[in-house]
Amino acid sequence: MSKNITPYKDSALGKKEQVAKMFDTISGNYDSLNRVISFGIDIKWRKKVLQLVAKSNPKTILDIATGTGDLAILMAQTNAEQIVGLDISAGMLEVGVKKIAAKKLSNTIEMILGDSENMPFEDNSFDAITVAFGVRNFETLEKGLAEILRVLKPTGVFVILETSVPDKTPYKQGYNFYSTNILPIIGKLFSKDDVAYGYLSESAAAFPYGEALNNILKKVGFIDVVAMPQTFGVATIYAASKK
């Protein structure tokens, strides 16, 4: 199980509230900063998620921890009838709503403020569910995954895109140096929140990945679980389904 890493070490707030506060603070710079931090490779990873989801021809898609809506917007290419983006940060959603309107997708994509561990949807509501760089922000990982299983339709597809840690030399050492020393500096230069990108780096390093996350998904009840490392293992795409 992942360690309970929180953004603000001395805060009396719970993890959910801290994460919401952090993303509200950095929402204005989040998109451009992500491109810089990942060297733009995250766009390629998201397109792979799109390909996996599109294979199932979903009519309804839920994008959890949608942030500013990048993945939800990309999912419009599946021609799904309904796409819902859910996030705990009002600031991130505000940016996302503007992006969606600019692309004339407001009739297809609905952005909702809500908690991924207690979602306002009925059982078996969605053909496909995605989470990009969000599961490590869940306060209780298994509870959040169980909630996703609940609202996913039987035989529906669940796809996670999340950071991971390379296992092989020299990629492991390079990743550790970059995430520990360089990423927080870039974050401080671009962000109003000094601790935000330190938290994102620390939480990524502590989060279970590969077979460890596969096992958690299976424990919760998902089937056909597969992990697909990306770019030397700095990120991993997970696909799973429901009985």
Give me the side-by-side strand order of the main sheet. Answer: 3-2-1-4-5-7-6
Helix content: 40-55%
The low-confidence runs, each spanning 5 or more residues with pLDDT under 50, are: none
Radius of gyration: 17 Å
Q: Looking at the structure, what is the overall shape?
A: globular
What is the percentage of strand-forming residues?
Answer: 15-25%
Which structural class should the secondary elements be placed in?
alpha/beta
Euclidean distance between termini CA atoms = 24 Å
Describe the biggest sheet? 7 strands, mixed
Number of strands: 7
* Average pLDDT, all residues: 92
Order of helices and strands: HHHEHEHEEHEHHHEE
SS field, number of helical segments: 9
Give an overview of the whole structure.
The chain is an alpha/beta fold. The chain contains 9 helices and 7 strands, in the order αααβαβαββαβαααββ. It has a 7-stranded mixed beta sheet with strand order 3-2-1-4-5-7-6, sandwiched between helices. α6 links the parallel β4 and β5. α7 (171-190) packs antiparallel against α8. The longest helix has 20 residues, at 171-190. The chain is globular and about 45 Å long. The model has no long low-confidence stretch (mean pLDDT 92).
